[in-house]
Structure formats: C-alpha cells, structure tokens
Amino acid sequence: MSKTPPLLQINQLRRLMIGPVSLALEAGDCLCISGPSGSGKSLLLRAIADLDPHAGEACLHGVVASRIPAERWRTRVGLLPPESVWWLPRVGDHFRDELPVPLEHIGLSADIMAQPVRQLSSGEKQRLALMRLLSNHPQVLLLDEPTANLDPENTRRIETVIAEYRRTQQAGILWVSHDQAQIARVADRYYAVTNGTLEERTIEGSNG
Prior knowledge:
By secondary structure, the protein is of the alpha/beta class. The protein has one domain: P-loop containing nucleotide triphosphate hydrolases (Rossmann fold), CATH 3.40.50.300. The protein is built from five helices and ten strands. A six-stranded mixed β-sheet has the order 6-7-8-3-9-10, sandwiched between helices. The radius of gyration is 17 Å and the shape is globular. The model has no long low-confidence stretch (mean pLDDT 94).
C-alpha cells in the first residue's frame, strides 16, 4: 500500500545563498526557522511560494508546484511577508470574503475597515495582513516573522489565532521567528539556518 504524501514536500530547493533544502511538512505541523539577518530565510519562503526563480521543487499533496496554476498555488500555499502590500486606499477594500475571526480577537475594532490604509500603524498592517491571508483558506502558511511589530499582548493574540486556524484547518505552518520563547510555544520542530542549509535543533524550553 502506497504511503500518503506529506502536505508539503520540499526537494533540493535553492535560491541564492539558501539551499539545498529538503523537508516534509505534515498537516497540522508547525516548523519554525531562525537564523541571522540575511541568511536566506525570507528567500526560502518566497521560493516555496513560487514568487522567485529557484532550483528544486515544492509539492503539495504530492503534486509539483509547476503542475498547479501559479495563482492557485499561492492561494493554497500562502505567504505572509514581513512588509505587507496594500494596493487599494481603504482597509475594507482588501477584504471580499468574511473575516476568519472577529477583529476583536486580534485587538482591533470593526471601524478600522473604513480607515485609509495610510493611517495604519505597522502593527495594525501586520495583523490585518494575517486576516487577509487566512481569508483565502490556505492549506500551508508561510509566516515571515508575523509578530515582529507587535507588543507581547498582541503577539499572544496572533499566536492564538494561528493555533486555532492550524487546529481547525489542519494547516501546515513554516514560521520564521527570532524569538526562542515564541519558538518554544508554537513549534513542533525547529531548524536554524547554518551556512545556507537547515539544521534541526532542540526546542529550548519545550516540554516535549
């Protein structure tokens, strides 16, 4: 009997200074990645999202990315970049579907949807960008420091929203973080970027 392929399989992926990287992500798994600035963490996530040219391949449920239309791949394998892009003037213009959770769950009020994007703080943009991503119902989340601009209270709120999405949708998560305490809270596995490759490390402070 053939084995079911993992949710996301990365095979010998290379992009500039990062790679080759090979790993498997099962449904419901959270894998954290850390490393020095400029070590290629963001490049790796962008390559997996098929936003930049790269060598190697990524597969979703055993299907190679090149066999899936680009827009569909980027919806199912959704990237949350460090700096989100907003192309319309009002916040609400960017949301066509129902929000994945009430805005109160991320420390915002409903009236923010009527505000101009230019009035948002970096932390507000970061939280709303996560809502926009989750509204697409991705199967894999590629999170590039999703709480970097947030205070501890809002960081915990975002961690809770992501954990609930992961649980209910059985989503797989690749999460870039510099925060070892956060990694201990959210990760099933942890890798550090060393000389362009990923080395598995023990999760400090984990009870597992």
